[in-house]
Each structure stands twice: as structure tokens, then as C-alpha cells.
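Just scan my protein:

. . .
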Amino acid sequence: MTRLGDIALVLRSKNAGPTLLTLDLIFPDTATLARAEAALTPERVAALCGVDPAQVRLISVPGAHALKIVLPRARPAGSPFDRDVYGAQQHAPLLSVPL
């Protein structure tokens, strides 16, 4: 079984302002991007990341073989009890998604 973390060239997360995170996924080709887009529905991403599906934005960038996912942060960056001020470790739930 091929997992997203095995096939993505880049899979990272970062801040997109104090209340949003972005997850950037870059693939080797258009066919792999299409497989990832089929597997990563807003509902699936929401379930993995613990957010409301209505708040998940998927932005496809076919020319770059990339998919950007925008999610709300659980807490504003740098606020009390924020455990990842840079949003750098939030992509981990996607690593094992089967394609």
C-alpha cells in the first residue's frame, strides 16, 4: 500500500497568519496529484486534523503538481496553550493516508 508520506516530494505545514495553517503537498507528476486529490476530501482532512469540514479549503495547483490545504488553528499562534507556534508539525496526520 502506498501512503501519502511515501509518495509526496514535499509535505509540510506552516502558519498562514495567527489563526490559519497551510499544509503544502508537492507531487512528482499530475497523475500522483490526482490520486492525492481523490484521497484528500475536505471530510477526510477534517477528520484527521480535528476541524469542521466546512472550514477545510483545498487549493489545487496543477502546474506545480501541488495541493495546498488551509485549516483553522485550534488556538491563535502564540496564545496560551498553543503547542506549535510555527505550525510546523501539523502535517503529521496526513503521512499515513493511503493512496
